[in-house]
């Protein structure tokens, strides 16, 4: 039952991905300008014959549906084409960049959920208290601050005023031959500012959401039951209430994932984080269409996977859904 | 012998956007060991607030106990520390709520929820507590208890859920069991089963029961003594037989007329006209005066006191003046 | 004690406005928004100055020259002139994008919610499809394709942000179409088009108004993000453009980046305070909690 | 909360490691070069530009290298001779050079490389006269020319003529997109260890390098940091040791202030980076030389170099970089003169002014956008209303200018050592090629200029060649297809502990086999 659900869900996800591929393929072919000229420009200028050979090389002179077919069938075999700019398989480029992005996004997600939910729960205890007010204000502020600006402000702060965190990159090059532990710590050290910057927006949203969700749950009968049993306040808040309040949070966490990737794009650009977002940004500036397509494909795939995971964990977290369907 | 539960002059107020309103006004009642006291009244009359006051669960931060005393087994609980209250809850007094569906946590299994009640007050392992929970489920008449213990509340029927609530409430053998409209959400045949179960439990465990209901029928079936409440006050109190046979207060009489009796058709059922006035709109006089056929000038001016006017205590000027 | 709503039935709009008025943060937000709006509308006229003009030495500190209280940027352009003129496009794009978002979202959501069945199924699959695409990335591609101008930016933002509105509208329609007055309207022979636009939509308005307000905030942030990445319209001064253009000099000069960022923040902050206020005003029950 | 604490702890530990890191330089050591430029790949034979040239010159050796005095020095060729008629050049290769995969470097490889470069490199004039190449034995290369080619030796420099292994590139695949471009095997002082596109190039010492005792360093890492302020921070805290091609005045001034960092302008002699304002001469408004001259008289070079660039850049009056021996001092300078400019505008029939657009290559703001914005406010004074057409990205700009869809455009064009390589391309009338950037996009046609340049290309006598170029400079300075503004103020910032910081004519586009860490 669950397996068939999972298979159906995955099948649907694949269908969505196919749609993404086709849409983007056509969108990008709409682009003005001849990619061959772009490639030639990047090489430092070119002659007509060179342009012709570039077109030949990249299959740009084939009919558009042939190009689409080549692209889609290529994806089925894991081949996303070659980057115009780097002259390398797009899958390889993305393979190098996807892990930093996943690391950043997941860390930010964990940070924002854990801190945000904690704040929300504390605020929900006294809905009219000072703490609750602070959380509300903080949530509105967090939502309103442009993420790239937060990043820049943090760079100004940490670059010169209190230089305790690195403000760019993911790794210290001079530690590239160091041991695993040192390397891991080094990456964690570099991760602090970008992850925190990205987390702030969502942290605020989770705080607000979990406050509202907790307030609703705390007013429910089963919380009174738990209290009547003699459960302690901590147990009431974090065991009885949070388990239930977590359900809407989980839904939102799944929906937020796409936004988180968008945010990561800006954060990666600000902090020179070597992820997919920056690859996308650079590729757009270079009109490196195969790479843009590839990044969109992978980013969408990440959202699809995140949605599937959310669905499954939702079913796991809410027993009422478990044996239905 | 002093009563198990003794409430004296209890006053509870709530802060609302209409200002501070009095939810309970000098409520006094007592429950003796092993007996069943029924509190009866329409919704909004203060029955549930009385029960929650005993449990120390008046909704925070709006509600507060203004005055009075609540003694359980001789110990004063008004002003007790939160820790002491927590210790008492579930162990010395336990509560059964009216909506078994919403009163059970949907994300934990039945067995876990009962086991939690046990581990909160007894020094046992989780496994042990879970086994005890299964035994309790068996005791309250749930078939296949070891299987049901692993179910979630939504997988049980309404009656089963209420049985489970009862199992959870008695898991620590409390001396006082508060049942807040335990059968309202259930259909009639199941209601009778639950009352039977409560009676059995009382017999076996020797617990006193504080039964809260709006249904005089339930009182007739369960209660030894009755306190009738209206608008935050006790307006009549006596043994169940006395109240049922010779109700003094016009409101109590009205309630009794509502009992569906065998042979009476549904349409013949009487209703008390009007509604309970909102608490913030109570005037100086008798709260029932607006709905009372016998109300007169004095009733609008002066609150009647709960005094024995011959038969048993009732708060009514009409009874006092023997016009009824 | 003296207000007894039971005896004074008011129109829901008036009631909401009364609730809103009592919400101090929301009123603060509204006032702030009006101030920002007036400043961007008339400020540039009064202050007078082309934000692209080089008027002074580059990177003059704020306060160092009385003529340019907020200093100058890397080209020696007046920051205040930039802030005052840059707000207009930012707000215009935000509003246009929000309008497009609402238009697409409400249309699709209403159709899906009202007709249900295969229409709903189809439209919801379509919505999900758009939700899978990371919005900023997709918007970047769109803007690059159609070359950056204020309208393509607004278009791109609108195209990527409607799914949430569509879902909200659909949910409202699903709820409202079962209500008695809709059945009544149908009973007197109202046509579908009329029921959708004249009967259900007005009743679904409160959450949609709140959502529209918040969408403006999101759209402003979006525009700022795109401009920051260099995908804004380079010939129109906007707050995002100011941040993006001055970004590489942050170690030398913090002010050309800080002030426009603050302006964006204050605007979105004001918009969301108003949005929250509206939300509370339309849902008095929530406010009680 | 505990997550936070743990993170802070980890950060502190990592920080202490980072602090300790610079101590690693001892024997050999690592050199970290920071760059804002992204190399497409690492093969300079098919790709022009700084980004590829820096790693390419480390990985690939070339026949000849140049010192700081423009003197050719032996490299893969231990000696060379030019035939008296200038129609052939013979290279004698060293015996002991091997590629990183162990195969010997032979004359076949050199011949193959030059022909591949001729065919694929965008600088067509570089090897255009090369007809055939003979390889009489494994270590002798004879380059046969169709006409004398004085720029040939310079074209055999590491930056322009990397020697590719024929056994890898000769497999029939197109050299422009050969997979080995990203994983090259050369015979230079360093071998590729890792290439992360857009991020880093890691190169390790070549232990079998044919020059004894070289290279000194163990490792060179090129790190790409596109954000200049992040790059400066990396320099300041020792995350990077060298920052070549630094052109921003703020950057230069900031680096000069740092205690442990040295800054030099040495090493850019051959680059010849000109910042100019190009005119589209096909535009009816700009086809009149008086309009172009009016614009030249209106613009104040002094203001641009002194105020906008804060004195770090130098004025550039003509098509050949002023530091080149071929530069002619006497060409007209067009010192600012608004009255004259207005008079010229009136003469040309534009007394009422005109409207023009200006494009600029997306690049260093101070050199491009700032100057374009300055033009806008300055040209207003002679009645020209300028619209600045910013391009969000390089392809957009290249598309406009390459497609001749522009009026005025700011651009940076390099001389690349010899005028034949870097100068001729933008003035020869037969190099007007629509769609091709850095061709004669101004569409300048002057038969006399064509004649002068073609003569200079084959003139072996240095003095006669200089005279030809002097006349060329006088002519174009009068015709003004381009208004030259300034030389890009390229600087190199480096850790003061570094020895032998590249200072030759090609700077860091040259093997860094002598660079080492000192005390």
Write a compact overview of the structure shown:
The complex is a heterotetramer of chains A (325), B (324), C (289) and D (519). With 289 residues, chain C is mainly alpha-helical.
Largest sheet of chain B: 6 strands, mixed
Rounded to the nearest angstrom, the distance between the terminal CA atoms of chain B is: 36 Å
Instruction: Specify the number of helices of chain B.
Output: 12
Name given to the CATH architecture of chain B: 3-Layer(aba) Sandwich
Beta fraction of the residues of chain B?
Answer: 15-25%
Outline the structure in words:
The complex is a heterotetramer of chains A (325), B (324), C (289) and D (519). Chain A has 325 residues and is an all-alpha fold. Chain A is built from 13 helices and no strands. Residues 262-269 of chain B have low confidence and may be disordered. With 324 residues, chain B is of the alpha/beta class. The longest helix of chain B is centred in the middle third of the chain and has 18 residues, at 188-205. Chain B is built from twelve helices and twelve strands. With 289 residues, chain C is mainly α. Chain C has eleven helices and no strands. The longest helix of chain C is centred in the middle third of the chain and has 37 residues, at 79-115. The two termini of chain C are 19 Å apart. Chains in contact: A-B, A-C, A-D, C-D. Chains A and D meet through helix 2, helix 3, helix 5, helix 8 and helix 11 of A and helix 1, helix 7 and helix 13 of D.
What layout of secondary structure does this protein have?
The complex is a heterotetramer of chains A (325), B (324), C (289) and D (519).
Chain A: H1 2-29, H2 35-43, H3 48-58, H4 64-76, H5 90-125, H6 130-144, H7 147-161, H8 180-218, H9 221-229, H10 233-271, H11 276-286, H12 289-317, H13 319-322
Helix pairs in contact in A: 1-4, 1-12, 2-3, 5-6, 5-8, 5-10, 5-12, 6-8, 7-8, 7-10, 8-10, 9-10, 10-11, 10-12, 11-12
Chain C: H1 12-22, H2 24-47, H3 79-115, H4 117-132, H5 135-145, H6 150-176, H7 180-187, H8 192-228, H9 239-246, H10 255-282, H11 284-288
Chain D: H1 2-20, E1 30-35, H2 50-59, E2 64-66, E3 72-74, E4 77-82, E5 88-93, H3 107-120, H4 124-127, E6 130-137, E7 140-145, H5 152-155, H6 166-169, E8 190-196, E9 200-205, E10 219-224, H7 228-236, E11 242-246, H8 249-257, E12 261-264, E13 273-279, H9 289-298, H10 301-308, E14 314-315, H11 338-347, E15 354-360, H12 369-379, E16 384-389, H13 394-402, E17 408-414, H14 419-422, H15 447-458, H16 462-479, E18 482-487, E19 491-495, E20 498-499, E21 516-517
Helix pairs in contact in D: 9-11, 15-16
